[in-house]
Automatic annotation (TrEMBL):
Name recorded for this polypeptide: Diaminopimelate decarboxylase
Biological process per Gene Ontology, one example term: lysine biosynthetic process via diaminopimelate
Residue positions where N6-(pyridoxal phosphate)lysine is found in the record: K49
Residue intervals of the Orn/DAP/Arg decarboxylase 2 C-terminal domain: 18-354
Pathway annotation: Amino-acid biosynthesis; L-lysine biosynthesis via DAP pathway; L-lysine from DL-2,6-diaminopimelate: step 1/1
Biological function: Specifically catalyzes the decarboxylation of meso-diaminopimelate (meso-DAP) to L-lysine.
Lineage: Bacteria, Pseudomonadati, Bacteroidota, Flavobacteriia, Flavobacteriales
Named cofactor requirement(s): pyridoxal 5'-phosphate
Annotated catalytic residues: C328
Annotated organism of origin: Flavobacterium sediminis
Length: 402
């Protein structure tokens, strides 16, 4: 996409606005599949929680992706988008047995990360194939909130509980057809990931009827100019070699699976906002935009950086600005950031806004959620209408007499 395309989309659809480039999603998908091209049975399950718009799911379905889901609602979205239930993995955490049973009836792959639920489910439904999520106790991830493989994590069945896990499987006669791990997001150290993979390979030897091994995801993407990222190509070569060796040792063909979310859609997304006010104080120049952490919470929640570009004046002289939102509390997107000179009415573009931006948005301060647009074949397609005040009232029930 070109800068002038983004400016035109704001004129057409208003601001704030989320825009997703379908071509960039395809490039990332092909990059990952190419990195593992020597694996005969390789499968990508897109992590729906990153960006769950139906049109995005359909783009990925067309590319050949399956889905990684964490709730029955995400499963239903996948089915609505036309995915075969067999291509959907359901990996919940802390949900009820009843929800897992409801999902199982839909025919998707169940993945359980809890010994108690595993025993209950296996006792009631021993013939339904189940994947188990292992916690390898390997610390990985760029932020404590997105590092999920360490010893204090609520996710997964501890590798130290393997004897207990094996007893449950033996007693229930349940069918374990896959094993899974996810150590965290923003992984840079390939060797740490490979170390965790070795733990998973060792665990796999205890299960004789596996169909697949799912290594999760967590590949880091660049969030600013010259930022570092996971070397997917190098990782692909190293893990492929080890996986093919293990497959021979195991004695039957296995599918190698990943479940990327951010890797596929983050760089395809742009968040466009209009500058309402440029405000100079004794120490700072603020650029206040027509949005806030109700629409893009990652900087406030994770301390994450999004490259911000003034697309109304891309070649202007750079000055220092703190870009802030309109939420009535501290609401900072960037502090003292070098950005081309900003004037009121300019359009600022937040890059890497495809993952965990709209999906984590809210109506805080009773603000409506923005529209979403898919850039496909050189044209912008509206894929979600901008909310209205009526949407704020939609599910509220007024008490008679008040």
């Amino acid at each position: 996409m070109k800068t002038q395309d983004l400016v035109q989309l704001v004129k057409e659809f208003g601001s704030p606005l989320y825009v997703y480039d379908a071509e960039r999603i395809e490039q990332q998908y092909q990059r990952l599949t190419k990195a593992f091209s020597k694996v005969e049975n390789f499968k990508v399950h897109y992590a729906v929680k990153a960006l769950s718009n139906i049109s995005i799911l359909k783009v990925l379905k067309k590319l050949g992706s399956g889905l990684d889901t964490v709730s029955i609602e995400e499963v239903q979205l996948g089915l609505h988008a036309g995915f075969d239930p067999k291509t959907i993995m359901y990996t919940p955490n802390g949900v009820s047995l009843e929800e897992i049973e409801q999902v199982a009836k839909l025919g998707v792959q169940i993945n359980i990360d809890n010994l108690s639920i595993l025993e209950q489910f296996g006792t009631l439904h021993p013939k339904i194939p189940v994947c188990v999520r292992i916690n390898p106790h390997v610390m990985a991830g760029g932020n404590a909130n997105i590092s999920v493989g360490h010893i204090d994590s609520k996710f997964g069945i501890s590798i130290h509980q393997l004897p207990h896990l094996l007893r449950i499987v033996e007693n229930t006669k349940m069918h374990i057809n896959g094993i899974h791990m996810h150590t965290g997001s923003d992984i840079l150290d390939i060797d740490v990931f490979l170390y965790a993979a070795e733990i998973l390979f060792e665990t796999a030897k205890h299960f004789k009827d596996l169909d697949f091994i799912d290594f999760g995801s967590g590949f880091k993407v660049p969030y600013k100019k010259d930022d570092i990222e996971t070397n997917v190509e190098e990782f692909g070569k190293k893990l492929t070699k080890r996986f093919l060796t293990f497959e021979k040792e195991y004695g039957r063909p296995l599918t190698l699976a990943f479940e990327p979310g951010k890797f596929l859609v983050s760089q395809a997304g742009f968040f466009l906002t209009k500058v309402n006010v440029v405000k100079q104080t004794t120490s700072t120049v603020f650029a206040g935009v027509d949005s806030g952490f109700n629409h893009l919470i990652r900087p406030m929640l994770y301390g994450s950086q999004h490259y911000i570009e003034n697309i109304s004046n891309p070649k202007g002289k750079e000055r220092f600005y703190s870009v802030v939102g309109y939420i009535c509390e501290t609401d900072t997107f960037a502090s003292n950031r070098r950005i081309a000179e900003i004037k009121e009415g300019d359009i600022l573009c937040f890059h890497n806004a495809g993952a965990y931006c709209f999906s984590m948005s809210s109506n805080y301060n009773s603000r409506v959620k923005p529209a979403e647009v898919l850039w496909l074949n050189g044209k912008g397609h509206l894929i979600r209408q901008r909310e209205t005040f009526e949407d704020i009232l939609k599910n509220q029930v007024e008490v008679e007499g008040l």
